[in-house]
Amino acid sequence: MTHGAMTAAFLIVVGGASLLAVTAPRLHRSHDLPSLENWALADRGLGAVWTWFLLGGTIFTAYTFTAVPGQVYGRGASAFFALPYTVIVCPMAFVLLPRLWTVARRHGYLTVGDFVRGRYGSPALALVVALTGILATMPYLALQVLGIRAVLAAAGLHPRGAAGDVGMVALFAGPAIATYRHGVRAPTVISALKGVAIFGSAAVAVVFVLRRFGGPGPVFEAADHRLAGRGPVDASLVLGPHQQAGFATLALGSALALLMYPHVLTAGFAAADPDTLRRVSIALPAWTSVLAMFGVLGIAALAVDVDAPSGTAEAAVPLLVDRLLPAFPAGLVFGAIIVGALVPAAVMSIAAATSFVRNVYVEYFHPTATPKRQMRVAQLVSLIAKVGAVAFVFGLRDQAAINLQLLGGVWILQIFPAVVIGLFTRRLHHRALLAGWAVGMLAGTVAVVREGFVSLVRVELGGHGVQMYAGLAALLLNLAVTLALTGVFDRVGAARGTDTTALPSRLTGRGIAGKEANGS
After folding, report:
1. Based on the number of CB atoms within 10 Å of its own CB, is 160 exposed (0-12), middle (13-18) or buried (19 or more)?
2. 29-88: per-residue pLDDT in tens?
3. What pLDDT score was predicted for residue 288?
4. Quick check: 347 and 267 in contact, CB under 8 A?
5. What is the pLDDT of residue 500?
6. Dihedral angle of Cα 90, 91, 93, 97, to the nearest 10 degrees
7. pLDDT at res. 137
8. 3-class DSSP assignment, residue 451
9. What SS3 state is found at 520?
10. Of 65, 236, 295, 474, which has fewest CB within 10 angstroms of its CB?
C-alpha cells in the first residue's frame, strides 16, 4: 500500500507534465509559416513569467538538484560553490543576455554561432563555437538521464534489466514527442509545473527534516560529526583556508561558463524583448534559494547516516526522502525531480539541433535550405540527441558521463572571449581567437585528464601553489594567447573578416526594439 501511494504520487506529477505538453501549441501561437525560429525560439515571444520558468528550469537541472547535495554529503562545504556561482550568473545575465538578444533579433540570429559568424566574418570561428557548444551539451544531456535513473533506483521504481530500461524510455517518450512537434513551447509549459513542484517539494522535505531533528542546529552538528568520521581528510562543513582559492575560482569559472551553454542562450533568445530578460535576471535568485534547500538536504543525509552506495553520492537525497517522508509526499518529491530533468533535457536537445542546423548543415551542406526544411532537420536531430543520451547512459559507466560533463564545462569556457568580448569590441582578431580557443581546449583537457578528472588543478602563482578551477586556468591561457596574437596580426596587417552586425557604440535593447516596431 505504501509503495502504491508513492507510485501514484509520482505518476501524478510525471503524468501532469505530459498532459501539460499537449497544451504547448496554445503558448504564443504564431500564424507564420513553419520555421526554425518558430520551433526553437517560440518566435521570440515569451513573456516574463514564462521566460522565468523556462530559463530557471533550464539552468537548474535535475542533476544539479541531486549532484550538489550529493557532493555536500560526500565532501561538505566545498560543494556549496554552486550557490555563489548561481548568484554571480544573475548580474551577468542582466548585462549580457539583453545585449546579445538585441543583436540576434536585429539580424535574425538563432544561435551564438550565428552571432560570431556575423561579428568576425569567420566561418571557421563560428564552426568551432557551434561544435564546442554541441560537444559540451551532449554529456550534460546524458546526465539528466543519469539523474532520472538515480532517483528511480533510490525510490525502488527502477526494476533491473530490460523493464527498467523500458521505463526510462517511457518517461522520455511523451515530452520527446511534444518537443519534436512543438519545439521550445513544450518544455516551456512543463517548466511551470517543474517550478511549482521543485519549490514545493524542497520546502516539504526541509520541513520534515527540521521536525525530525528539532531545528537546524542538531542537523549540522550530527552531519559534521559523521562527515569527520568517514569523509576525506579535507571534508568538513566549514571551508578550510587551503580550499578558499579553489572554491572562489570554481564559482567564478562555472558562472562564466553557464551563460555560454547553447541551451541557456536558447532559453534567453526565446524571450519577448530585452526588458523581459532584465526582469527575469533580477528574479532568478529565487531558484538559488531552492538549490540551497537541496544542499541542506545533503547535510541532512549525513545527519541521518544515509548509506549511499560507493560512487553514487547523487543518490543521497533520494534515499533520504525515501527514509524520512511518508509515501505520498516522497512520491511527489521524486516526481518533481524527474520533471526537473525533462525540461533541461528538452531545451538541450533543441539547442544542440539548432546549432547543428544553422552553423553546420546550412553553412556547409545546404545553404539554400528553406526555413521549413531547417526546422524539419532540427526536429530530427533533436530526437536523435535524446535517443543518443539514453543510449549513452545505458551503454557506458555512469562515471564516463560525469567525466565528460566536467570536461564540457572546461570546453565551453573557451568560447567566452569570442562571444562576450565580441559583444563589446571587435579588436580581437578572429585568427587569434581561434588559436586561443585551441590552446585553451588542449590545456584544459590535459589538465583535467592528468589530474584524474577533477575540477581543481594546482597552479603556481608567484612561487606559491594554489588550487584553481581547471576551466578558468585554461581560459586565462586562452586570453593570453589571443591578446598576444592579436597584437602580432595587427602589426603585420593580417586581414580581418567583415563585421555585419553593425553594433552601435551604445547598444540599448529598448531603442532598437522601438525602431523595429516602428519599421525603421
Report:
1. exposed
2. 665 668 999 999 999 999 999 999 999 999 988 778 888 888 888 888 888 888 999 999
3. 92
4. yes
5. 85
6. 160
7. 92
8. coil
9. coil
10. 236
Q: Tell which residue, 505, 503, 511, has the closest CA to residue 104.
A: 503
Amino acid at 49: V
pLDDT tens-digit map of 367-397: 999 999 999 999 999 999 888 887 776 766 6
Element of type H or E holding 457 = strand 456-461
Where residue 162 falls among pLDDT bands split at 50, 70, 90?
low
Sorting pLDDT into bands at 50, 70 and 90, what band is 490? very high
Which three three-digit cell numbers place residue 307?
548509506
Q: Is 7 left (phi over 0), alpha (psi -120 to 50) or beta?
A: alpha
pLDDT at 190 over 70: yes
Which residues are 464's β-sheet partners?
461
Beta bridge partners, 271, equal 46
Alpha carbon 156 to its chain's center: 27
In sequence order, the 6+-apart residues with CB closer than 8 A to the CB of 38 are 30, 32, 183, 375
Higher pLDDT, 492 or 11: 492
Q: How many CB atoms lie within 10 A of CB 396?
A: 12
How are beta strands 456-461 and 464-469 bridged, if at all?
A: antiparallel
At 389, list the grid cell: 543520451
Alpha helices by DSSP H, listed for 155-261, are 162-182, 185-213, 216-230, 244-258
Contacts of 374 (CB under 8 A, 6+ apart): 35, 36, 357, 358, 361, 362
**466 pairs with which residues across the strands?**
459
Q: Which of 139, 112, 110, 108 is nearest to 125 (CA)?
A: 112
* DSSP annotation string for 96-137: HHHHHHHHHHHHT--SHHHHHHHHH--HHHHHHHHHHHHHHH
Q: Compute the distance between CA of residue 256 and CA of residue 473 in angstroms, rounded to an integer.
A: 12
Across the range 449-455, mean pLDDT stands at: 87
Measuring CA to CA, which residue among 67, 149, 54, 93 is closest to residue 314?
67
What is the pLDDT, as a whole number, of residue 398? 62
Residue 33: alpha-carbon gap to chain centroid: 30
Mean local confidence (pLDDT), 311-319: 80
Q: Which of 342, 41, 37, 337 is nearest to 178 (CA)?
A: 342
Which residues in 406-443 are b (16+ Cβ under 10 Å) and which e?
A: bbbbbbbbbbbbbbbebbeebebbbbbbbbbbebbbeb
Q: How many whole angstroms separate alpha carbon 41 and alpha carbon 355?
A: 13
User: How far is the C-alpha of 149 from the C-alpha of 442, rounded, in Å?
Assistant: 32
Mean residue pLDDT of the chain comes to 85
Contact (Cβ atoms closer than 8 angstroms) between residue 228 and residue 76: no
Measured between alpha carbons, how far apart are the two ends of the chain, in Å?
66
Cβ 321 vs Cβ 330: under 8 Å? yes
Partners of residue 236 on adjacent β-strands: 76
Q: Is the dihedral of CA 105, 110, 112, 113 positive or negative?
A: negative
Q: How far is CA 123 from the centre of its chain?
A: 26
